[in-house]
C-alpha cells in the first residue's frame, strides 16, 4: 500500500464524496499547495465543481503535519471528526 496513492480528479468525481480533506501545504514557493488555491480549482473545474462536497463547500483543511503518520495524526483525526459533526454527517 502506498502512503500517498495518486488518482485523477475524474475518479474522485465519480465517487462524489460528501466531504473533501485538503492538505493546506502553504509554502512561499508553491502557491498551488495552499488550501485556497485548491478550493478555487475545485470550484472552477468542470469535472470537480459538481461534486457534492464542492457544491456544499464541505472542506476539511489539514496541515501537512496532521496528514503524515505521526503523533500529529491525532490532531487531523479530531479535525475531521469535528467537521463531520458540523456538517451533520456523523450518523
What does this entry look like structurally?
The chain is α+β, with helices and mostly antiparallel strands and 91 residues long. The protein has one domain: Nitrogenase molybdenum iron protein domain (Rossmann fold). It is built from five helices and two strands, in the order H-E-H-H-E-H-H. The chain has helices at 9-15, 35-44, 52-55, 64-67, 73-86; strands spanning 20-24, 59-63. The chain has a two-stranded parallel sheet with strand order 1-2. The model has no long low-confidence stretch (mean pLDDT 88).
Number of helices: 5
| Main pleated sheet | 2 strands, parallel
CATH architectural label: 3-Layer(aba) Sandwich
Q: Give the spatial strand order of the biggest sheet.
A: 1-2
Low-confidence stretches: none
User: CA-to-CA gap between the ends?
Assistant: 29 Å
Q: How many separate domains?
A: 1
CATH homologous superfamily (4th level) name: Nitrogenase molybdenum iron protein domain
CATH class: Alpha Beta
Q: Helix/strand/pairing class, anyone?
A: alpha+beta
Secondary-structure element pattern, one letter each: HEHHEHH
Q: How much strand content do the residues show? A: 5-15%
Pfam family, one: Peripla_BP_2
Protein name: ABC-type Fe3+-hydroxamate transport system substrate-binding protein
InterPro entries: ABC_transptr_periplasmic_BD (IPR002491)
Domain Fe/B12 periplasmic-binding: 1-91
Give me a quick take on this structure:
This protein is of the alpha+beta class and 91 residues long. It has a single domain (9-86), classed as 3-Layer(aba) Sandwich (Rossmann fold), CATH 3.40.50.1980.
